[in-house]
Specification:
Blueprint lengths: L9 E10 H11 L4 E2 L11 E9 L4 H7 L4 E9 L7 E10 L2 E10 L3 H5 L15 H17 L2 E15 L2 E16 L13 E2 L10 E8 L5 H9 L9 H24 L1
Antiparallel strand pairs: 1-6, 1-10, 2-7, 3-4, 3-7, 4-5, 5-6, 7-8, 8-9, 8-10
Length: 265
C-alpha cells in the first residue's frame, strides 16, 4: 500500500495565489527541501487529478458559515481520484477552529463505497485502515453531521494537484493546485465527468494562469517556508475551493439567467 502523506489531523494551511511562471520558480525552491509525491505525474506540472463531492443543505448552510466567517465551521466532502475500483474514496470532515485545520477522514476502497454512500457503515475489511479506530470514528461523525443537517451532494469540485512531501517527516506538505473547476451535482455519484462546468480559479484574468499554492505544516512554521515567502514576495490569501467556487458558479449562473431574460424581454 502506498504511504499516506496526508498531514496529521490538526494542522495549519497557508494559501497563496501565484502565476504559473512563478509557480515553476517556487517548485525549484521547494524541491531543495521536499520530494515529489509518489502519485505525481510527468512534466510539465507533475500533477494528478483530485475530485471532491461537497455536501450541503438545501439552503446552503455550510457554505454560508464559510462566507460569514464563522470561527468554528466545517465542510463535508467525499474525495476521490478516478473511477477505478482499486482506488480509495475518502469521507472527510474538515473543520476550521480559528486558525487551525482539524480533519477527520475515513478511507474506503471504491468497490465497497456504494452502500456507504447510501448511509451504511463500512465493514472494517472494506476500509483502508481496518484497525484504526479514528477512521471508524470519522465516518460516524460524517454521518452524524450529514443527517443532523440533512446534507446531500451539491457541488463537484475538481483540480490538478502537484504535491511535495518529506518521506521522513509527515508534518510538512506543499501543494500546487491548477485548473480548479466546479459543477453542481445533486446526487452522490462519484463521477469524474462534469456537466455545465465552470473554471473558477482566478480573479478575472486567465484562470489557467492562476495556481493555488498551499504551505501545510503541523508543529511550527519551518524556517525555509519563511525564506520561500520572503524570496518570492508572497501575499497570503484565502482560497476555500468550495466556498469560492460556489460563489463564482452562482454568480455566473445568475448572469446567464439575466442574459436569457433580457433576450426574451
Amino acid at each position: 500500500m502506498a504511504q499516506d502523506h496526508t498531514l496529521m489531523a490538526s494542522r495549519y494551511e497557508l494559501k497563496y495565489f501565484v502565476t504559473q511562471k512563478l509557480a515553476m520558480r517556487i517548485r525549484e525552491f521547494v524541491r531543495q527541501h521536499l520530494e515529489l509525491d509518489e502519485f505525481g505525474g510527468g512534466p510539465p506540472n507533475y500533477d494528478y487529478p483530485v475530485h471532491s463531492l461537497y455536501l450541503d443543505t438545501s439552503d446552503w448552510e455550510i457554505y454560508w458559515r464559510t462566507i460569514n466567517g464563522d470561527k468554528n465551521r466545517f465542510k463535508l466532502r467525499i474525495r476521490y481520484y478516478n473511477e477505478s475500483d482499486k482506488t480509495p474514496v475518502f469521507w472527510e470532515v474538515k473543520r476550521r477552529m480559528k486558525d487551525v485545520i482539524l480533519k477527520q477522514r475515513c478511507g474506503i476502497w471504491r468497490h465497497a463505497a456504494g452502500h456507504v454512500l447510501n448511509g451504511q457503515l463500512p465493514d472494517p475489511l472494506e476500509m483502508m485502515a481496518p484497525h484504526d479506530p479514528a477512521e471508524m470514528k470519522a465516518i460516524q461523525e460524517f454521518f452524524r453531521l450529514q443527517y443532523d443537517l440533512g446534507a446531500y451532494g451539491k457541488m463537484h469540485v475538481a483540480y490538478e494537484r502537484e504535491a511535495y512531501v518529506n518521506n521522513h517527516d509527515n508534518g510538512i506538505r506543499v501543494t500546487f493546485d491548477r485548473h480548479v473547476r466546479v459543477a453542481t451535482q445533486f446526487d452522490q455519484l462519484l463521477t469524474t465527468q462534469m456537466k455545465k462546468m465552470f473554471v473558477c480559479t482566478g480573479t478575472g484574468e486567465d484562470p489557467d494562469d492562476v495556481v493555488i499554492l498551499e504551505l501545510k505544516y503541523v508543529r511550527r512554521f519551518p524556517n525555509w517556508y519563511n525564506e520561500l515567502v520572503q524570496t518570492f514576495n508572497l501575499m497570503q490569501g484565502g482560497a476555500a475551493k468550495y466556498a469560492e467556487s460556489t460563489t463564482i458558479y452562482a454568480g455566473r449562473e445568475l448572469a446567464a439567467i439575466d442574459v436569457i431574460r433580457n433576450m426574451v424581454l
